[in-house]
Amino acid sequence: MTPTVTLVLCLVIGFAAGLRSLTAPAVVALAAHLGWINLHNSQLAFMGSTVAVVIFVALALFEYYLDQLARTPARTAPVGLSARVVTGALCGACLAVAGGAAIWFGAAAGAIGGIAGAFAGYHARTGLVRALRVPDIAVAIPEDLLAIGIGLLCVSRF
Fold first, then answer.
1. Would the pLDDT of 71 be above 90?
2. pTM of the complete model beyond 0.70
């Protein structure tokens, strides 16, 4: 795989993290655990451990629940946006290692993707809810599925 393709995948997995901050690391941890991506002998090898898979999947499921609560702050608020930048960077770094690219370039691409995904997802979701005049959950669930699908698409390219 070329470094350019790897960095594009880092950006795209970051975008998935921008949609759902914990879905991308759950998918990456599961992919590393199943051997779809190789993180062995790197400082990110912990992502393939059973403990990491359990923790990230449980946190992603909890995030899906929290997302439905009315009092949940916008993903573009400082805490939510920071989480998306961090998890995007982590996932981008993992894909960079798996693809043989520089870890810092992957982390930067993932962080940028996290910001883009957060703002694009926020505007798309609020716009669709308003335009379609549907409850928020009618757009939130497809967005959850989109984040999972994007994550799986990225990790399946290795």
1. no
2. yes
